Amino acid sequence: MFAKYRRPLTLALALVVVVLLAACAWPLGQLALREVPTLLAPPTQAAQQAQPTRAAQPEPTLAPAVPVSASGAVPGVSISGVARAVRPAVVQIVNKQLVGAGYYSQPVEQQAGIGSGVIYDAKGYILTNYHVIEGADSVTVALPDGRSFDNVKIVGSDRDTDLAVLQIPAGNLPVARLGSSGKLEVGDWVVAIGNALGLKGGPTVTVGVVSALGRAEQEPPSDDGTPGPYLYDLIQTDAAINPGNSGGPLINLQGEVVGINTLVAGVTDYSGYQAQGIGFAIAIDTAKPIADEIVATGHVTHPYIGISYQWLSPALARRLGINQAYGLIIAQVGAGSPAARAGLRPRDVIVALDGNELTDESSLGRYLKEHKPGDTVTLRVLRNNQEMTVKVTLGERPSD
């Protein structure tokens, strides 16, 4: 289960809980996790007064990645060089929200959380998590060189992918290079940079490996109970990721951004055991096209079928008398939706999309993301235990 950093964690839990904790939003005046989904990269402290711009340092030359030696060292590669190249481009993001101060007094602006972001374009574009700026009335960005910007422009955001793009009006900016997550292999060394715990003195650098690729996990629900979106093609890493890191970059040994740190997994039981070294980053090959679309249009379009559904577990199948071991059982069909126009009904069981079996709850979204509005997909459906084929022309998901 994923959980956002919204409330302080209790010191003891009565039940075994498996949660994916979004590494972000460090609340002002508290040393407690906030339940917030998205990338790592916490800022050092709240907005600071603007300071003189320091002279830009030349970007260090990074050695190509080479096999790890028996001692565990990476010959010819300097982690410090990677950090020097990218750390100046990792920013602190402060989410400020208006809070009512009383019956007779005006609302006051209060720091709601802190996260991280990475400058990826000389025009001042910053890539971060949606949950870092979610609900913000204003956003402040602070650079490691001391520069600070109030009322930063939110170019656009997308809850479904937990991504957002900000822009600061400045020149002479440090810029991180975007690489390709498609070149990653399990076991590759990676570096995570972010403002862990909001510590003073600049972003924190941690090192680990790619533990797994292609993970799919669901984020925690919103404060209003809306189910969190599934995130696909996540990079799993054991590089230390902590609250405040959300939105920060995951970097390869060539100094290229290959992911945006977003989630942390934790397991706590009666013994007090807590899982270590299980973090997740949004692959840059997923994030880059989303950022490009946000910059071009201000929003992101997603394909839409127009159904609500439940995973068909074996127990549910037996209870409903359905002769099918897996699939998605439709609970509701939206009026006038693509599903309604295609003739889909409640209690239909979707078994496959374009020949791809739906073997878990995330399967439908994983396959749909390869399409765009206007595409026609073929569903294999079970209705009253009779198999049928239904073609659906996808629409554009309505805005919330």
Secondary structure layout:
Blueprint: E1 2-5, E2 17-22, H1 79-86, E3 90-99, E4 108-119, E5 125-128, H2 130-133, E6 138-142, E7 148-149, E8 153-158, E9 163-167, E10 177-178, E11 189-194, E12 204-218, E13 230-237, E14 249-251, E15 256-268, E16 279-283, H3 284-297, E17 303-304, E18 307-311, H4 314-320, E19 328-333, H5 338-342, E20 349-353, E21 356-357, H6 363-368, E22 376-383, E23 386-393, E24 395-396
Parallel strand pairs: 1-2, 10-15
Antiparallel strand pairs: 2-15, 3-4, 3-6, 4-5, 5-9, 6-7, 8-9, 11-12, 11-14, 12-13, 13-16, 14-15, 15-16, 17-24, 18-19, 19-20, 20-21, 20-22, 22-23
General description of the model:
Helices cover 11% and strands 36% of the residues. The protein is mostly beta strands. It folds into 2 domains: 1-50 and 80-300, Beta Barrel (Thrombin, subunit H); 303-396, Pdz3 Domain. The protein has a 7-stranded antiparallel β-sheet. The longest helix is centred in the last third of the chain and has 14 residues, at 284-297. The chain starts with a strand and ends with a strand. Mean pLDDT is 80; it is low at 1-73.
